[in-house]
């Protein structure tokens, strides 16, 4: 296995040879063997051990074992104790998910603080097989069935091509001690149930099941990469980055083969779960929406618009009469007296100061708002004004108003209200400019 491991490093992870590595070690056979192999391969690494305090004295014994192991290898050791049960309770997580979050967050903190280049974990082929079944049960797409990534977000998993049997055999052959986690025998955890109850059935049907599975998973990975290549070609033709999110061309989407599959690939990373509702948006009435935990997808005429969930801004900001500059969350207002109107631009207006009632206010628009658009006759509802301008829902939601009392002075960067316009060239003129 030493030769195979060195070849794995040479062919798949050559960049590890000249870098500082942080190696996650629980004390179990997988991580202990990985540390031993890294030592034999003369890699530069330190150990990181998490004590989750879930098994009382057994957890402390694991920590002591890893401390002795680090001394034997003559490498640095980092140890962190966690109150995993309290963290799980506070965050509404299972114990396993809480432990996962805690360890990966800590590994990344260590890596950045002490300038390690990568974190190594001892995931192996059987872990990948068990993850496949877990994702299959949860209804994963192609990416969920194609295996654990060997290299992702500075996490390297160099043992994925080795089985649990190979690792244990190597440990026995080289007289390497390890710790057994008693919780690994309990089938109350899904992964353990798959390991002890499901995988053995497949192995009984096919003694080479793991090898067969790895070949199948390799094919799935190749197909996933093919899909990614295809999507990289489609992406710029379908999606346009906008000020508030992304806009997707419905017409082009409908022309491509397997429209639903393409839409899934475009949106899978945004947390949507009600995929039939997402697909139905293509033919829905404008204004129809589908939500994920973090994002919103809106049908807007010929486009689907993806934005983060909007936070309704109902705060009103005030600008006093003596303020020449007002820096507010949406941008900066500047007020200056000018002798004449020299330029016209969307980001500035000219008003009669005698018509202003201070303090001025800045707020988001609301249903029922109306104003007297400069250059037009009569009054107009803002909702109709936005409709005429064909503003998208995000553009409407992010429209701000400068107001004097209960009157709109300016639909900012869009149109001034003529009630505050200059009526005589001899009067005092105030120029109001808005900048982001």
TrEMBL record:
Subcellular location: Cytoplasm
Record domain Lysidine-tRNA(Ile) synthetase C-terminal: where: 360-432
Keywords of this entry: ATP-binding, Cytoplasm, Ligase, Nucleotide-binding, tRNA processing
Catalytic activity line of the entry: cytidine(34) in tRNA(Ile2) + L-lysine + ATP = lysidine(34) in tRNA(Ile2) + AMP + diphosphate + H(+)
Gene Ontology molecular function: ATP binding; tRNA(Ile)-lysidine synthase activity
Enzyme class at the top of the EC tree: ligase
Gene Ontology biological-process annotations: tRNA modification
EC numbers for this chain: 6.3.4.19
GO CC list: cytoplasm
UniProt comment concerning the protein's domains: The N-terminal region contains the highly conserved SGGXDS motif, predicted to be a P-loop motif involved in ATP binding.
Recorded family membership: Belongs to the tRNA(Ile)-lysidine synthase family.
Name of the protein in question: tRNA(Ile)-lysidine synthase
